[in-house]
Amino acid sequence: MSTMTAIGGGLGDAFASSYREQAENLGRFNLAVFGKTGAGKSSLVNAMFGHTVAQTGIGKPVTRGTNYYEHPSGIFGVFDCEGFETGQSGDQILASLRQTVQEYRGKPMTDQMHVAWYVLRWSDRRFEDSQAAFVRELRSIGLPVVFVMSQVPLLPTGEYHPDAAQLAAEIAAEISDVIIEGRVVLTNAFADPHLGCPVHGLESLLDVTFRAAPEGVRQALIAAQRIDLKRKRRICKAIVGGAAATSAGIGAVPIPLSDAALLVPAQITMMAAIARQYALPISASTISNLALAATGASSAATWIGRGLANLAKFIPGPGTVIGGAVNATIAATLTTAMGMAWVAVCERLAQLDTTEIEALLGDGSLIRSTFLEAFKEAARKPLGKDTPGERDAA
Ligand SMILES: Nc1nc2c(ncn2[C@@H]2O[C@H](COP(=O)(O)OP(=O)(O)O)[C@@H](O)[C@H]2O)c(=O)[nH]1
Ligand SMILES: [Mg+2]
Hints:
Elements (H helix, E strand, L loop, with lengths): L1 H6 L3 H16 L2 E6 L6 H9 L2 H4 L4 E4 L2 E5 L5 E5 L9 H16 L9 E7 L7 H13 L3 E6 L11 H14 L3 E8 L15 H11 L5 H7 L4 H22 L4 E2 L7 H13 L7 H12 L4 H13 L6 H4 L2 E2 L1 H22 L4 H9 L2 H16 L7 H6 L1
Parallel strand pairs: 1-4, 1-5, 5-6, 6-7
Antiparallel strand pairs: 2-3, 3-4, 8-9
Bound molecules: guanosine-5'-diphosphate (GDP) and magnesium ion (MG).
The site of magnesium ion has 3 residues, from α3.
């Protein structure tokens, strides 16, 4: 049948190419980080986007003191402006930065600097005139600047240390006209067991960064960040809902089982789009192998066949699936269950690093069982009902 021909080089290739296409749709979010060495810039980037950016090691030199690190997912990058300590040869560095930013403005959106974080460690306890001048300069270059205070202790009452709050207020008063939302975002990137200070402020930092980012790169920012999984899940549900509607349309005039592979392209696009939401640090071919392991498929026929076989156990009157045709309800339910099962797999993968994910491929059984478990749950309950966990977290 024609769909099988369209899949051509195989399911894996179809998945990989859809995955690559999805990256283009998402674009890329580029963050530039400024502040003294030791301020906590890398720690904040790691807390929000995972460790992979820093781990990839050597950045690409952009200009004096600035390296660019691209996340392996391709949808996120960091300009690490290490060494921009104000005072020392600051004018020269700023001049080259100004030139760089202007140069980048002529490049495609995916290469530009989108948002700057200026990071000040609260325990420095002061904000120098030269730092204020530097922030003004960043703004005049055209960068939206999010001002971040790092390593801010919380009192046992949950309030900020009063000295930090006061310093933040002073900074905001001084440069509110050039920083995003006129405010300082107070944060702590990782828990300090000695001080008993918990992680805080990252959600606010994400929100402010999101609002500062140009609209065209916000999707990439949400996919790249790792602290707000609810946001990812909402987007994934919308992707699944769209694919389910397409599937229902295909099954509106019930299709014979032998033509059920007609559903495969929409499901592949759906799963590739979902995987992108998790900014996994792996190649297109690795993710497509994982998708095949999850679904237990080696061809469009087994892809659909296994899905329907699993579905048959949950839909009343399995005879309609096994013996007869695929109608709109069955098509939509199958696609929904596959989508939500794949979300569960991707959520797991997102907790692993590149090596751990590749190790999982050696023996696909864990991927397969995660997928199946979630498939069964999704097949039983309609899409859109949040789990109790999601509701609690909301
Ligand atoms: N407890 C705690 N320590 C931090 C935090 N951020 C940074 N640090 C410490 O400060 C050091 C410098 O941080 P880093 O992120 O490398 O700063 P960078 O030079 O600005 O990139 C790290 O080795 C950490 O020990 C934080 O949020 N909490
Ligand atoms: Mg650093």
